[in-house]
Amino acid sequence: MGCFISKEQDSGGNRKRPVNIGEVIVFVPGLRIPKPVDFSAAFEGKLSKSMVECLTTLRSQIVRLAGQEGPTITRTRRKSSTQYGGSVLADFQQALEDYMPVLLGLVKDGNRLQHEVPFAWINHEDGAEEHVMGNAWYEVLSVLHLMAMLSFYQANSLLLPRASTDGYQPKVSEESKRASVDIFLKAAGYLDCAVRDVLPCLPPDIRRNLPVELAEGVLRALCLQALGQAVDIQLGIAIDSAKATLAVKRRLACEMVKYWQQALDNITNLPLTSSWGEKHQLFIKWKLLEAKAAAYYYHGLILDEGNTEKSHGMAVTALQAADEYLKESKKACERFNAAPPLSRTPPLWGTMKYLSEKIPKDTSSKVRINRDLYTHEKIMETAPTLPDFVLALKPDDYSLPPVDPSWNAETTKQSALSPTKL
């Protein structure tokens, strides 16, 4: 069974698309969710009843959670508790983790059953099309992608500023910041595994027909986005730390530029025709401009510590570049929020709250002082090149889990019924 052409859903085609997705700190380009499939019909006489029931139960739970909780997960909100005392996101993630080892039995050692089931998925936010592919590796790829996107939603909920008890502006706790870094690295690990271990297992014809959300460039861009946002949080923590030096802050900011630039490079040439794809690209461009503003600011402060006219002149142009990138980032933020589906930015906090106040003030001060000391001709007209640091932050080392032991008995049964045995 090969690749099925995407088709419009009778029920989903008229689904009302979201007009406003609320406050966005971590952008997710639409949540892909599974549609029901009939394992019984596909595996009749080929798998034991218990294994079919196991696959059906595990996947049905994911379908149920996606249908019931998807609308709440994709809207701005703090984590909500379930009757079991956990969170909706945690229950969803656990269901996916429980399903994966059993699902992997369909692809183990080239299992011929991997082509028997037409796995159907649909974009929850844009329900006009469902993508159906008769390959279990497509299902594995879709599950990994969903695990990563749920992690993004979890990070977004952690990083939304909350009203403080002291009556001051809403803020994000240190605990939430540090937890979000771990979540970003975990999400990056899922995406890295998808590119490294799953995409190569798909036949070329299926890879060519994957929905754009699962294209290699998008997966890589999302992985780099996770790393870029993790570094952004680390930079904010460094700014709040009295022990962090200017050199440390500059390095983090310069690394952040590289992550966002690589994310943009991976997504630029893809056919992102949907509003979600275009909005994702606008989000990356916005964050890249913010990162450049931070990098040039700290680079300028370090250059200003030099004792030569040249270093002071370079410091001025670096700070002026930071100020220009900050202004451009604010325009890019407006373009992102105005693009459909509409969104809004939460109150400033962390890195950008600090830099939005410091960059204009310090740039004005340094320009005034240095122009009093040196003639205009001695001040460089172009910004100095940023230092090129090796990227330090890496995705979590995630690998596909071992196949569920229940498949051992299934393999024995299938071997006994194989043509050579008969």
Summarize the structure.
The chain is mostly helical and 422 residues long. It is built from 12 helices and 6 strands.
Topology:
Elements: E1 7-8, E2 20-23, E3 32-34, H1 39-43, H2 49-73, H3 88-103, E4 119-123, E5 129-133, H4 136-159, H5 174-198, H6 204-208, H7 216-240, H8 246-267, H9 275-303, H10 309-338, E6 342-344, H11 350-373, H12 406-416
Parallel strand pairs: 2-6
Antiparallel strand pairs: 1-5, 3-4, 4-5
Helix pairs in contact: 2-3, 3-4, 4-5, 5-7, 7-8, 7-11, 8-9, 9-10, 9-11, 10-11
InterPro entries: BRO1_dom (IPR004328), BRO1_sf (IPR038499), BROX (IPR038898)
Region (Disordered): 402-422
Biased composition (Polar residues): 408-422
Written overview of the protein:
InterPro entries: BRO1_dom, BRO1_sf, BROX. This is BRO1 domain-containing protein. This protein is mainly α and 422 residues long. It has helices at residues 39-43, 49-73, 88-103, 136-159, 174-198, 204-208, 216-240, 246-267, 275-303, 309-338, 350-373, 406-416; strands spanning 7-8, 20-23, 32-34, 119-123, 129-133, 342-344. It is 57% helix and 5% strand. A four-stranded antiparallel β-sheet has the order 1-5-4-3. The chain is elongated and about 85 Å long. Residues 1-16, 77-86 and 415-422 have low confidence and may be disordered.
